Amino acid sequence: MSSNIRLTRRCHVCGVSFVAKTTVTKNCSDRCAKKAYKLKIKNQKVYASESETSSQIPYVAIEISAKSYLSIKEAALLYGVSEKTIRRKIARKEMPIIRFSKRIVLIKKEFENLLRIET
Ligand SMILES: [Zn+2]
């Protein structure tokens, strides 16, 4: 569909001014339109992934709250820190653990009592 409309627009991708022939044109070229499309698809995927993750957390949180011993992964999720931080605390003996096997470590959930509370 062509028209006699000529509008000066600024490209959403590269920022260059161009003459648009429709009122909905957002990009200066096919290359920029493809870039914009790829970015849109990427953002949709990121959003879908984030919403999926946020819908999983409450279920996991309920599951964790019912346990008295946690895995490193669960402890990291519960306290909002990385697994590396948990492993570091274990190495410094700042967390009471039970060594289930050579590789499996369980953390006693009520370890908060042992943490120093800063005021
Ligand atoms: Zn452009």
User: Which ligands accompany this protein?
Assistant: zinc ion
The helix content is: 40-55%
* Alpha-beta content class: alpha+beta
Silhouette: rod-shaped
Strand content is 5-15%
Polypeptide structure, described:
It comes from Rufibacter tibetensis. Residues 69-115 form the Helix-turn-helix domain. With 119 residues, the chain is an alpha+beta fold. The protein folds into 2 domains: 1-66; 68-119, Arc Repressor Mutant, subunit A (Orthogonal Bundle). The chain contains 3 helices and 5 strands. The strands form 2 sheets. A 3-stranded antiparallel β-sheet has the order 3-5-4. It has a two-stranded antiparallel sheet with strand order 1-2. Strand 4 (97-99) and strand 5 (105-108) form a beta hairpin. Helix 2 (72-79) crosses helix 3. The longest helix has 36 residues, at 30-65. Bound molecules: zinc ion.
